[in-house]
Amino acid sequence: MPRLTVDDLKRIKEEYKAAFTLREGGQRAKITVHMGTCGIAAGARKIMEAIIDEINKNNIKDVIVTTSGCAGLCSKEPMATVEIINEAPVKYVLLNEEKIRKIFKEHVIEGKAAEEYALAVGSETAY
User: Fold this and answer.
1) Residue-averaged pLDDT of the chain
2) Has residue 72 got a pLDDT over 90?
């Protein structure tokens, strides 16, 4: 087994830190890109790439990006849901790269929902 280098230890530390943050709920925001077949066909992969690019460009460490299946509104794809801690989730629809970058800046960084792209605010309930 090869010896660990300082770079190996730094990488392991960052991987552990990311896993610990997710497990402990240390993030302040979560972005879910809806990637059912309909979402992927409508361009959800480009939306995901743009979000990851914005996170890297802005050196953001406290935002999780995740995926889900179809949200049931195929005609509104691509869609993403932004959840800021202690605030109602916002579902954004008919996205493209330019729109998601604006949503990221306004909602995730500045804390104000980009209402012109929002379909709904709040969670669905089953009662």
Assistant:
1) 86
2) no
Task: Identify whether the C-beta of residue 58 lies closer than 8 Å to the C-beta of residue 106.
Answer: no
CB 36 within 8 A of CB 69: yes
Q: What is the CA radius of gyration of the chain?
A: 16
- The encoded tokens of residue 91 equal 């579902």
Whether the link from the prior residue into 2 is cis, omega within 30° of 0, is no
Q: Residue 100's closest CA among 31, 13, 9?
A: 31
Q: What's the CA angle centered on 59, arms 53 and 89, to 5 degrees? A: 70
User: Where do the domains of the chain lie, and which CATH numbers do they carry?
Assistant: 27-121 (3.40.30.10)
Question: At 41, which amino acid appears?
Answer: A
Please answer whether residues 51 and 80 qualify as being in contact, where contact means their C-beta atoms are separated by less than 8 angstroms.
yes
> Tens digits of per-residue pLDDT, 4-63?
788 877 777 776 665 554 445 568 899 999 999 999 999 999 999 999 999 999 999 899
